Amino acid sequence: MMTLLISGKLPVPESTLRITTSSATLVPPTNDSDPRLKTKASVSTLISPDDNDHQAKSSPDHSAVSLAISPTTHPTASPFATHGPTYDVLGRLVFVPSLPAPSPVKWARFFPGGYNPSLQLPLRGKKMMWSIQAIGGLAIMFYGYDQGVMSGVVNNDQFKSLMGVDSSPITPRDSAAIGGIVAIYYAGSIFGGMLAGYLGDKIGRVKTVMFGCIIATIGGTLQTSAGGMTWMCIARVISGFGTGGLNAIIPVWSSELAEHNGRGAILAFEFFLNIAGLAFAYWLEFGLKYVSGRSQSFIWRFPLAFQLVFLIVLLSLFSFFPESPRWLAKVGREDDARQVLAVIRTEDGDLDDDKVNEEMYSIMEVVDVERKMEDQNGYMAMMFGWGVADSKMHLPRRTWLVIGLQIWQELTGIGVITVYAPTVFQSAGYLPYKADWLSGVNNIFYMLSVLVAVFTLDRVGRRVTLYWGAVIMAISLAFCTLGARYAVMSSGTDTAKWGAVVATFTFIYTSTFGASWLTVPVLGWSIGNGIVTEITPFLFNAIGEWTFLLFCVLNVLGLPYIYFLYPETACRSLEQMDILFAQDSIFVHRQSMSLERLAKVDPEFFHAMETGQAESRATRITDTATEKQA
């Protein structure tokens, strides 16, 4: 049953509704009056998962679907703010949160850096945003470099001898050890990313970035000077801890500074630079190996040392960039937040600019909601629902879907290609020089393919992109299996022909991943990458070319996983996603029916949600008997 409850027209007792969460959105003005004083509807929504509408209508005790709409004045759009319009001493409309800002943590002073208005670059507007994108891109490029650098290191003869993994022929113990050296980095990334999320909220984005740079610098220095297996493993964990923190906080920082209509382009740009860093690491090692004429020790130590260049630049410059205005507002530094917005949104730093005022007001609304919903912000709340007063928004389901997709991203087999590419091409019959050269070319294809996602994600949709990506990658890996198998069994020109098949479909596989699955945005990714990089050397040693077939099967298994569990997010507002996830069913087709019902019952409100001009969250009628009495 679908019931429309309108305050002032139907006497519905408050006890019939329970609001599970809320949001506040600034509605664009429709007339010349102040848009913040415009009376509009504050909407809460939940669609019943029951498909039998007739049964719902005939049963008064049946759980119903409701749209609860009540007139609200915009300055109190947040359901937790009960005050009227408030103006500062300059006559600007401001949002006064219903809860005070949290007290600053005392231990924050022990962390270096932080936001200091007097140290900011003398740039404004677009120039400042370009600088922010450049420094953020440098951090993401460093992360890509750090991912790719081990591809050449683990194949260096002197490195393998120093680590004690140079048996000939290679033993299962050596294969596991090589995989462990690579994979243990991602164990550090898991904990670094989790800690960075906590620190980012407590001490700020800028301090967290600088802390991550310091940890990564220590790890990089230890890697460069490593003298044995234990030393290298400890160094890899430390380095992963630092870079995992950077990878977790940099995208948040850059997106909170970017305008809402430019965040997609920034995300695509960061992915592009991530793969550019990976490609740069590979070609640097290729040049050192075949051109420089340097010693074997220098060939693997210099690339590890070069990562310090990225970190030194980041440490030297990051204090000159602004803090996230959202974080500043969250901790009660509204004046600093307004100052940052003026710097990045206007060309003259005008604090009274309309764009600055509107965005500041919107930020304060969101901050007010976040303070009230603090019990839902912890890791335990997100992953297991612990401490959450109301579970109707299914936060754990959302969290595990994200983590699961990131793990599955690595189970598609991309780690096999990017980290162990020379081994892949050698398995197809190529000599070491040609295998290394093909690996470098493959990374260039990988980098360029990311640009395809910029034009396809929003137009084609996320689900379709993941689906066709998995299909093409499965087919490519099947042909890689076939080519590698016959390359091993053949000789002479036949070996070259089958090797070309492997090379061609490896390029197709990598390019497809870059255009589709790469755009899955560190916890789940680190887990999946760690597993794959650990087992890959062992797999190649144990089953050879059948490794390709294993990951081909995993791509096929991913198809029903995506089809049944992951809703489409492209061109859907956050309000619509809330309605989908408010359903008890975990299956996409059941969830989508709720939006279809809403579109039929109230097409005007449905259109408002599509355009981001409606405030909605899930609300369930918990006492249908009370509704009946009303």
From TrEMBL:
Major localisation: membrane
Topology with respect to the bilayer: Multi-pass membrane protein
Record's GO cellular component terms: membrane
Recorded catalytic activity of this chain's protein: myo-inositol(out) + H(+)(out) = myo-inositol(in) + H(+)(in)
Gene3D superfamilies, per database record: MFS general substrate transporter like domains (1.20.1250.20)
Transmembrane residue ranges: 128-145, 176-199, 206-223, 229-253, 265-284, 304-321, 400-425, 437-457, 464-488, 500-525, 546-566
Composition-biased stretches (Basic and acidic residues): 51-60
Pfam family name, one: Sugar_tr
PANTHER family: MONOSACCHARIDE TRANSPORTER, PUTATIVE (AFU_ORTHOLOGUE AFUA_2G02110)-RELATED (PTHR48022:SF78), PLASTIDIC GLUCOSE TRANSPORTER 4 (PTHR48022)
Protein name: Major facilitator superfamily (MFS) profile domain-containing protein
